[in-house]
Amino acid sequence: MSLPLLEYTPSAQNQRVSGFEVLGDEQPRVYTTENLLSASEMDALIVAAYRQVFHEQQMLASNRQIFLESQLKSRQITVKDFIHGLVTSDSFRRLNYDVNNNYRFVELCVQRLLGRPVYNEREKIAWSIVLATEGLNGFVTALLNSEEYDNHFGENTVPYQRRRILPQRAQGDLPFERMARYGTDYRDKLPRPSRHYEFTSVERADGLFRQFEPFDFETLMRRANWPVVAGLSVVFIMLVVLALALSATATSPLG
Prior knowledge:
- The structure is a single chain.
- This protein has helices at residues 39-54, 66-73, 79-87, 90-97, 102-114, 121-144, 147-152, 184-187, 217-223, 226-251.
- By secondary structure, the protein is mainly α.
- The protein has a domain at 14-187: Phycobilisome linker domain (serine acetyltransferase, domain 1, Orthogonal Bundle).
- Helix 2 (66-73) runs antiparallel to helix 3 (79-87).
- The longest helix is centred in the last third of the chain and has 26 residues, at 226-251.
- The radius of gyration is 30 Å and the shape is elongated.
């Protein structure tokens, strides 16, 4: 028996009301199969679906789902089925689900599938419970079968970011593509440069200075192996003297 979705109160955000603004270049373009599409129009719809789900950072040839594209072009599946297949694909799981915690992944999926940011922390917790109990496939199915998704996108429309451009504001909300794919917990695990290093011979893999460590003359003088430097200097001087002697012998007139 599956747990019911935890109740949460939607905040008063603009995507919950109908818009009356005049469409312009900054408004999202709606891609739908409600009308008969040409081959080029269908290709544009498929690209829009990939951009919505994977975003431009992950639109790689290796992430394409050729079988799903073929089914969509032949009208064997709907746009909603195509979106479901993209989100539950191995590529999307590897690039988004495996590298995030449940809360961050819920936030990403609400943005990309419902076209809006999460209302509050309680909504993230509610959908995280669904993700934890029913898995990725059950969570995506619940989102796509929600009343909100059906009311705005239905079976045949590619999801898009709703109500981003607001006429009463000088600047609209940033597109979701500008948001980081990783959460702060994963970001903090990544290596980052630091100005404070404890230099040891074991950690010295890049010469006198470690990777990302700024150059400092005092540090160079302290870490340099001066006996080796002295020996190399003597050898260099001897080579220079020998080269000069050979040059002088070669240019001297024969007696």
